[in-house]
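Entry 12.
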Amino acid sequence: MKKSLFFLVLISLSAGLFAQEKEVSAIKNVLQRQEQAWNVGDIPRFMEGYWKSDSLLFVSKAGPIYGWQGAFDRYKKTYPDRNAMGTLAFNLLRFDRLSPTSYFVLGKWHLKRLNDDLGGTFTLLFKKIGGKWLIVADHTS
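Predicted 3D structure (tokens):
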């Protein structure tokens, strides 16, 4: 009986870890698609990783911006062409599961450009909405 209970617990834990690995992999895929889109100068495709909602929150040194359109407009203004956009690379540092439908992600970003390099840190709140992992809050510095 004790062995059966032990194996049942072990199987349950393994299934939970597999589910978390699958979710983290899906979130990493969102971020990889964002990198790829950015690096070909495609801000609209980059924005597909964000929740298309007025409730999206984007925070940078310029302060908070609310809504998908506001974040999109900020990216277009700040990075008006390929030279300004440079080449983006993410270094993903941490994935914390907050619930079955939300993750906190910590990482670093780096832009390599012709005349300079930029970089910083970001924290993202991902939520699973409509079966897709989307960024609902982004704090980038």
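Annotation: Residues 61 and 96 are 24 Å apart (CA to CA). Residues 2-140 form a domain with the Nuclear Transport Factor 2; Chain: A, fold (CATH 3.10.450.50).
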